[in-house]
Amino acid sequence: MRLIHTSDWHLGQTLHGQDRDFEHAQFLAWLLDQLVAHRADALLIAGDVFDTVNPPLKAQERLYDFIVRAHEKLPQLDIVMIAGNHDSGGRIELPAPLMKRLNAHAVGRISWVDEGQLDHQRLLVPLHDANGNTAAWCLTLPFLRPAEVTGMELGDDYMTGIRQVHERLIAAAESTRQPGQALVAMSHAHMAGGAVSEESERNIVIGNAEALPASLFPESVAYVALGHLHKPQQVAGQARIRYSGSPLPLSFAEVNYPHQVLLVELDGDQLKNVEQLPVPRAVEMIRIGRASLAEVIAALEALPPTGLFDDHLPWLEVRVLLDEPLPDLRQRIETTITGKACRLVRIASEYAGKRGEAESEVLLGLDQITPQELFARAWEAEYGNPADDQALDDFATLLQRVEFAHAEGDQ
């Protein structure tokens, strides 16, 4: 059985205000070709399908048009997607009755039935082989918010609640599957030890909770398809527990990531092989600097002249070290790139020697600072000392409640 694992599409995302619909369209066309070429039996989309809980209409059209075209080309293909922390669980699930007619399943959130029992039936999705037989079960674990895994007899501890959800769902899957059927888990979470892109990933470790341990997924689970971290990676050195990573670089900090989807092969109830399928980049991203203005100007002058269609022109970020304020900095840069094959989306400037910052530090604009980082900076500016762990934990919990309320309000 062949599965394609992907995640973090972030449909509707903009790059410093610039629309990226062309890049998403190119990726989805390529992905459809891969599904056909590799005769995939299932497509797993592990969360953050959209960039915001209230995505633009074009982004929603992209998703549902892709699902329809995939069903037309591969009528037996199972598509399973879960909500990530950027998604609205209700919005993801809204068209579920229609999507089922296309063998597409959307799980936005978990739910509980009488006496605090996990509604595992809606979280277990059968995956079929080329003959239409159930060859595997997909355990869907959308991003778990505190309100979903605490309360009642579950208690108030977030991590304990998460562990109980995993244990109950895996137990239900074990009792449901028949001999030879594989268990495939799909989760949108921050696993312990995962490498994070600080410029474009929200920290979803809540309060004083730790990142989730790999031990949540016992050996009986043949493969774990993860979403949230944009850099492709294994978890705890286990080939069966993986982040596919995002198919597009979502910030300039991710330009060197090996963007890909994963082709997963199962042999009965065992993992046979995982192959990386590199995603071609429809639009390049160029980052020049951190360097002096003279060095930056020289690098800009070396850029090739334009000769591409507008949609294919590379995105450009310029990072300049200055000795003093330069009011005409943007004008100088824009003049230099006139006629060059690029689209300027950001200029970051910093004064040499400021706060003794290390040469390797990333220059961040306000649009790239996480709420947690902004809170920490504001606290230190107000009180003169770094925020303690309790203050950071309280802020993280409050932020999570606000984001959850926002998501609920948009459903």
Automatic annotation (TrEMBL):
- This protein's record includes keyword Glycosyltransferase: no
Report the InterPro entries cross-referenced here. Answer: Calcineurin-like_PHP, DNA_Repair-Maintenance_Comp, Metallo-depent_PP-like, Mre11_N, SbcD, SbcD_C
Superkingdom of origin: Bacteria
Tell me the Gene Ontology biological-process terms attached to this UniProt entry. Answer: DNA recombination; DNA replication
* GO molecular function (one): 3'-5' exonuclease activity
Q: Where is the Calcineurin-like phosphoesterase domain?
A: 1-232
Ranges for the Nuclease SbcCD subunit D C-terminal domain? 283-382
Q: Which Pfam families match?
A: Metallophos, SbcD_C
Keywords, in A-Z order: DNA recombination, DNA replication, Endonuclease, Exonuclease, Hydrolase, Nuclease
Question: What PANTHER family does the database record attribute to this sequence?
Answer: COMPONENT OF ATP-DEPENDENT DSDNA EXONUCLEASE, NUCLEASE SBCCD SUBUNIT D
Role noted for this protein: SbcCD cleaves DNA hairpin structures. These structures can inhibit DNA replication and are intermediates in certain DNA recombination reactions. The complex acts as a 3'->5' double strand exonuclease that can open hairpins. It also has a 5' single-strand endonuclease activity.
Family in the record: Belongs to the SbcD family.
Q: How does it assemble?
A: Heterodimer of SbcC and SbcD.
Protein's name according to its UniProt entry: Nuclease SbcCD subunit D
Organism, as annotated:
Stutzerimonas stutzeri
